[in-house]
Amino acid sequence: xxxxxxxxxxxxxxxxxxxxxxxxxxxxxxxxxxxxxxxxxxxxxxxxxxxxxxxxxxxxxxxxxxxxxxxxxxxxxxxxxxxxxxxxxxxxxxxxxxxxxxxxxxxxxxxxxxxxxxxxxxxxxxxxxxxxxxxxxxxxxxxxxxxxxxxxxxxxxxxxxxxxxxxxxxxxxxxxxxxxxxxxxxxxxxxxxxxxxxxxxxxxxxxxxxxxxxxxxxxxxxxxxxxxxxxxxxxxxxxxxxxxxxxxxxxxxxxxxxxxxxxxxxxxxxxxxxxxxxxxxxxxxxxxxxxxxxxxxxxxxxxxxxxxxxxxxxxxxxxxxxxxxxxxxxxxxx
Length: 334
What we know:
Low-confidence stretches: 4-30
Largest sheet: 6 strands, mixed
Radius of gyration: 19 Å
Distance between the termini: 42 Å
Number of helices: 13
Strand content: 15-25%
Structural class: alpha/beta
Helix content: 25-40%
């Protein structure tokens, strides 16, 4: 049997990053007509989007969200599966917002096969939180196991269609994207959003990767997708404008790496505030001062300001942009 509820299977976009409850069906967005068997849970920014692929033989989920949303991920999935089991889990890359629900899913579905990009496999096998970026970014991801590798050049049959695996370095050196040529349907992860792309994390630690971002954008253009399911944000069809905008942002970052560093810093701060919702400024600063990425970014891009002053500057920029609010010494996500 296919996905039990054809309306979910056709196109489901649910934005629930700011809640702790599974959304009601009337919060779905049916703006893009996806192939039968493809369900998209649009999660927001703390948890990456999840994509459920169902056919008569199996059900596969691509990406599992952040750890603090794992109960919500399970609720969304069980609502869509309606009694079916989840057979496979695939991760486009292993940033915490894409794989933080892996452990919970493996506990809920003991026979679950889990596929990850090959470049991350040794670090998952030994569970090296530094190499996997969780400790350096101050984020959390419970340990999980894997049973297979998403080798670039391979293909997988999910939802009665062939999905090609393509290497997509840049945002993460080991990321992959998934493309179904029959439907010209692309899961772009964080390589391409409608309004840009994910922070180029290698650049935050001094590793050149802007060229790889450009090469991945070129790959996406060659694939000629008609529909893109991004890692964050709504499914979209206006691919050429999205690529043009991404290239414009990339050129700006490459000309001014400090601008990208400030952007990356604010993304890391905002991500943690999304996780906590509200926290005293003193406690938030204490956390930030212990995060290796923050210290490294300050040492290279602090422009002579001491660490406390530089951090206050970043928080002030977030406040001016409307990304946070401060009331009586308490930071609030906005």
